[in-house]
Amino acid sequence: SGRDATRDTVSWVTVVVTTMLLVANVATFVYAFFATSIEFTFLGVAGAALGEESSTRTISLHGVARQVRDASPELSRSMSRLLEWVLLLFTFAVPLVRRATMLVLWLLPVRKKEHEAVWFGKDFIEAWSALDVMVLSFVAVIAQIRQFLGFMIGDNCQSINDVLQQLVSGPLYRGHDLCFDVDSRLGLGAWLLLVC
């Protein structure tokens, strides 16, 4: 009857839309993993010395994992690789498997007992995901980098800043008349990872 046809149409539309959203989530997650998550722009004399192109640095979550490999010269090559792979495992592979599991649960007809087992597996996998921790650390970096660099530089730039303020009447480079400053912001990758 007409009521059953409407129910079937709504059910079919729900399946298609939900499937499309799950696939879009997987695609967005993979894209966000490689997209710029953090952008740093070095300002002041240091930024001017680096030049327009070199004064801005970007990094993605994938880039963070690659840079872990070379982060400490004291670590052996195998230990550096292990750290890189652990980071990739918990920030990319585990969240990706979780998304794939959701797709499987949605698309494949499984009995209730199998559904519960797969759902338990998804929850177990999800507990090992460190994606949220990584995105939160990006936010912390953005919030604290200027203060951290100010602490590291300390008064070492003060005499240069005093001379600059006497010689230059306006902003020297990108609105900053300091020896060194940094501007940082979250990139599209971090926002997409947050949404995923």
Please provide a brief summary of the model.
The protein has helices at 2-34, 44-50, 61-68, 77-107, 112-127, 131-153, 158-167, 188-195, and strands at residues 36-43, 56-60, 181-186. With 196 residues, the chain is mostly helical. It is elongated and about 80 Å long.
SSE diagram, text form:
Blueprint: H1 2-34, E1 36-43, H2 44-50, E2 56-60, H3 61-68, H4 77-107, H5 112-127, H6 131-153, H7 158-167, E3 181-186, H8 188-195
Antiparallel strand pairs: 1-2, 1-3
Helix pairs in contact: 1-4, 1-8, 3-4, 4-5
Describe the overall structure.
The protein has 196 residues and is mainly alpha-helical. It is built from eight helices and three strands; from the N terminus they run H-E-H-E-H-H-H-H-H-E-H. Strands 2-1-3 form a three-stranded antiparallel sheet. Helix 3 packs antiparallel against helix 4. The longest helix has 33 residues. It is elongated and about 80 Å long. The two termini are 40 Å apart. The mean pLDDT is 85.
Low-confidence stretches: none
Structural class: mainly alpha
Q: What share of residues is helical?
A: 55-70%
- Biggest sheet strand order reads 2-1-3
The number of E-state strands comes to: 3
Q: What is Rg?
A: 24 Å
- Which outline best applies? elongated
Percent range for β-strand residues? 5-15%
The topology string of helices and strands comes to HEHEHHHHHEH
Q: Major beta sheet, specifics?
A: 3 strands, antiparallel
Descriptors for this entry?
three-stranded antiparallel β-sheet; 3 strands
